[in-house]
Design a protein that fits this description.
Aminopeptidase; 14 helices; 13 strands
């Protein structure tokens, strides 16, 4: 009976995948073509990375290998789901470093080229691809997302087929709600954990944050600050212009070129476009030495969260000075400046972020390839993308 049940379920899933829901769908290649109030009605309850301001910025300065796609689902002329996607051309050798391929043949990895539909954003970390109306059942919402992605993928055949779809980045409780995607042949893949620092309320100065820490970790932070101060390094908030944008882009590339996985590279002008679009929700701190910019970090305010965005470092200075560690501290300063209660540090450099009090949050993507046998191979490739285990650190003092 179990075999029969499995066969019946497989047939039912096949029918679900090939049966349209009753929602009306609107598709667009630019956020500027979408009715503002329809998009904003859902986006304003979601993430700033779904806001028209952010999406207009990324459209004006997109990575060379990506382009944007959008969709809205309507129920009785009322928008209930919004989707923001990227179509990206991805090569296998940008996914996995040679030393971390674990038996995958170089010929396969280097020859792997895929035009990928990404629900979300390759240049941000978080669930930035979907927004749902508050009164919509979450499983129904994810079914709508699956249909939208299917129709976008099929519509792309005129300019180049898309076989692979990626939905990023999923955490609880969205992981449970989105599990309905398994019925549409999506498979869950774990990535690096997101490191999150919970500041809570009442943190108005950096000294208030330091007071939360045990003496060991507070002392470490103070030593880093003193070392840079004694070396004539200056930390300051930056207002970008074309010249500064070019400088921070060069520093960003130094970090990007060392990355194990490089799915999309930001062009010059991107950070300046963000500043102009997000205004008070964008922050950039820099570290200078004798008027030379040697490091920067950007932060984006997403409601009550401060999202650590991109960092850039001159490694000739960082080799002898704790530039990177000081930049992480400046993210916390940015969060305090913007009255945020959490700092979303992202998914790299787990050890130094843990030392600031950040805790790991498990993160996943949903992936699907059109061809089942290729789906199996591609999942093997994606599972070779390294993800770390965050260390446990008792940084924050226990409340009295």
């Amino acid at each position: 009976m179990k075999v029969i049940d499995k066969v019946k379920d497989k047939l039912k899933r096949h029918q679900e995948r090939h049966t349209a829901l009753s929602y009306k769908l609107l598709f667009s290649d630019s956020i500027n073509f979408i009715k503002k109030e329809d998009w904003n009605g859902i986006a304003c309850e979601s993430s700033i990375f779904l806001s028209r301001d952010y999406l207009q910025a990324i459209e004006s300065a997109s990575p060379d290998n990506t382009s944007q796609r959008y969709a809205i689902a309507y129920d009785n002329n009322k928008p209930v789901v919004i989707v923001s996607c990227q179509v990206a051309n991805i090569a296998g050798d940008t996914l996995v470093e040679a030393k971390k391929r674990k038996g995958l043949k170089d010929k396969f990895v280097k020859g792997y080229q895929e035009r990928v539909l990404v629900c979300g954003n390759l240049v941000s970390s978080g669930l930035h691809g979907v927004g749902f109306a508050k009164d919509l059942d979450p499983q129904t919402a994810w079914r709508i997302v699956a249909e939208i992605l299917y129709k976008i993928r099929r519509s792309e055949r005129l300019v180049g087929k898309i076989d692979f779809v990626l939905i990023k980045d999923i955490k609880q409780p969205n992981l449970l709600d989105s599990s309905v995607l398994e019925r549409f042949s999506y498979r869950k893949i774990q990535t690096d954990p997101d490191m999150v620092l919970d500041l809570g309320e009442g943190i108005n100065e950096f000294s208030d944050y330091l007071a939360l820490l045990t003496s060991k970790y507070r002392s470490r932070i103070n030593k880093i600050i003193k070392k840079l101060d004694s070396g004539n390094f200056i930390c300051e908030k930056l207002t970008l212009d074309a010249n500064l944008d070019e400088q921070i882009h060069a520093l960003y590339l130094q970090v990007e070129n060392k990355s194990a996985t490089r799915l999309a590279t930001l062009p010059k002008g991107y950070f300046l476009a963000l500043q102009e679009s997000l205004i008070e929700n964008f922050s950039c701190y820099g570290i200078k030495h004798e008027d030379k910019l040697v490091g920067f970090v950007t932060t984006i305010k997403d409601k009550t969260d401060a999202v650590a965005y991109y960092v850039g470092i001159d490694y000739t200075y960082n080799d002898k000075n704790p530039i990177y560690f000081r930049l992480l501290q400046l993210v916390i300063q940015s969060a305090i400046d913007m009255n945020c209660q959490k700092v979303i540090f992202g998914r790299t450099a787990l050890e130094p972020k843990a030392s600031l009090g950040a805790k790991p949050i498990d993160t996943f993507v949903w992936a699907r390839h059109r061809v089942p046998i290729v789906n199996f191979v591609i999942r093997k490739l994606f599972r070779n993308i390294p993800y770390g285990i965050a260390p446990e650190r008792k940084v924050i003092k226990k409340p009295l």
